[in-house]
Amino acid sequence: MTSMTLNKCDTGNKPIMDGVNYLSTLAARVEEAIKPHSIRAFASKIDVSEGTLRRILKGEDPKLSIIERIATEAKVNLLWLITGEESDIGDESALHPVVKLDEFNDAFVLVPGYHVSVSTGYGAFNDQMQVSRHLAFRKKWLEYKNLEKSKLAVVFAKGDSMEPTIHNNNTILVDLSDKKLSEGLIYVVRLGEELYAKRLQQYLDGSVRLISDNKEYVEQVVKPDEMEQLEIIGKVVWIGKDLT
User: Fold this and answer.
1) Three-class DSSP category at 188
2) Do 97 and 26 touch, CB atoms closer than 8 A?
3) Cα separation, 70 vs 56, whole angstroms
4) In CATH, what number is assigned to the domain containing residue 156?
5) How many domains, in total, are found in the chain?
6) Can you tell me the distance from the alpha carbon of 164 to that of 178, in angstroms, rounded to the nearest whole number?
7) Are residues 118 and 104 in the same domain?
8) Residue 126: closest CA among 196, 217, 222, 212
9) pTM of model > 0.70
10) Which of 120, 87, 83 is nearest to 4 (CA)?
11) Could you give the CA distance from residue 119 to residue 232 in angstroms, rounded to a whole number?
12) CB distance 119 to 194 below 8 Å
């Protein structure tokens, strides 16, 4: 899935973009914006180190304040620089970054992406959750999906057991407030010391099945007397596309 510019009438109830390619497309727009300056010269103009600008161009998640400075110095639309989309406001307003930053904050929410691998295969344990990037989602889309921004997290899938629904390295948006098991939906769960993204199904005896979409993988069953090992972290609500 590639990043694309959408018409204003199409975007109200959709997430901003797919998380997998967001930082690479942002880097490409920054590279376009700073031309014809050298990296060193432009970094000096916006009062950041050359190394900082190079890391942004390599796909590192930048601070919004730095992106604002890039937009101001390059005289480009801040909304376009962040999202790849054009604003309804005329080109002249690109010289006023405060207005553009407000416009972005009015329309979008930055959801933290954690340095956590959620296995869709044999499990991946992470003992520290570190914010590694932020992804932008439309406020209108979050409202449409009845999602609370402070209860959301982005994590990254590893493995192939949930294919074709979730692919290796896919970005996953998780609603941390929704821990109630609804049969057949996908959840991020902790089983013992491993994290998984799986469909869940509960039996009448209280046991829970962890089901893979890839039929080459055998389902896991957590028995009632093993429930202390199972924790529902949250429901998966987006993988570059709506799930529900």
Assistant:
1) strand
2) no
3) 11
4) 2.10.109.10
5) 2
6) 24
7) no
8) 196
9) no
10) 83
11) 14
12) yes
